[in-house]
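pasting for ref
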Amino acid sequence: MPQSATFPGNMTVREVVEYVTWMRGARPDEARRRTARALEAVLLTDRADSKTRDLSGGMLRRVGLAQAIAMDPEVLLLDEPSTGLDPEQRRIMVDRLRDLDAAVILSSHVMEDVSDLADRVLVLDAGSIAFDGALPALCALAPDPVAPRAAEAGFLAVLATNLGVSR
């Protein structure tokens, strides 16, 4: 799922999810069934017949998530998945991603997403691996490892150490 996705404004939510599901190999009847299940998972069933041009940015992100999960992927690659989501929509996304029986690879600067979703964290700095380990190990690098934003503080500590400066 890309950081930002655009959909044909004249198509409905159901049509754009069903079309991508069909393009990924589902028979038409299976694509309809998978689309209905995916829209229910992201709480967009009530907007299934809405044109995508009439949706908010957060709803469009949820349409993208529905497309991504409709075929039950084994691996799901997400780029900044919570961009544009309000707190309620973000919680829906996090809950749905946790429910997946898939390896979720998340690229994000939003440490709240990382804290909510990651078991393992890879921190890149200038194209090099600056940290590779479990989330608790990243949090342990924070000045106060039990603080509510320990992952973010650990991330900043890794970057500071990598640059040889104090932040």
